[in-house]
Q: What sequence folds into this?
């Protein structure tokens, strides 16, 4: 990985962290675009926000240097989350670019996507990531929790 790529990924991570800290209820969304070896990497950084009781469908799209939809080496699309207790991924059986994200335990994790953009014998990896935040579901019941053991009252005789 070249220094330019590393610095770009660091900058993207800093921007996402800033958005998560100062806009926790918003869905940060920004477009970063740069070209490496004639492959345009256009990342729409969007924080995926789900309740623990929700799921959402997604599709990964790859683009060439002119912004056209590009194909990648079949069978090389990788989609994964770093913490599977926060969010789970279920891949589409018929299309490797489609997947669903299921909310799990409340927390934050990172969704990573990559593929081989070289349709020949070589390997040219393109990748992107997104933050995934899972919040607790809506309240559906009430519980009363004792905060102490029963105590005797001081009663005068």
A:
């Amino acid at each position: 990985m070249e220094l330019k790529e590393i610095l770009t990924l660091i900058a993207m991570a800093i921007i996402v962290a800033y958005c998560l800290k100062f806009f926790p209820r918003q869905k940060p969304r920004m477009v970063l675009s740069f070209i490496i070896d004639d492959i345009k990497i256009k990342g729409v950084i969007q924080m995926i926000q789900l309740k623990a009781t929700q799921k959402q469908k997604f599709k990964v799209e790859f683009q060439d240097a002119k912004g056209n939809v590009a194909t990648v080496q079949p069978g090389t699309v990788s989609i994964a989350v770093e913490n599977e207790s926060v969010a789970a991924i279920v891949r589409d059986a018929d299309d490797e670019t489609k997947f669903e994200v299921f909310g799990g335990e409340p927390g934050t994790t990172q969704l990573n996507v990559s593929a081989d953009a070289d349709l020949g014998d070589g390997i040219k990896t393109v990748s992107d990531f997104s933050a995934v935040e899972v919040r607790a579901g809506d309240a559906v019941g009430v519980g009363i929790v004792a905060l102490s053991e029963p105590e005797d009252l001081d009663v005068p005789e």
In short: Residues 28-42 have pLDDT under 50 and may be disordered. DSSP finds one helix and eleven strands in the chain. The longest helix spans residues 3-22. The helical segments are 3-22.
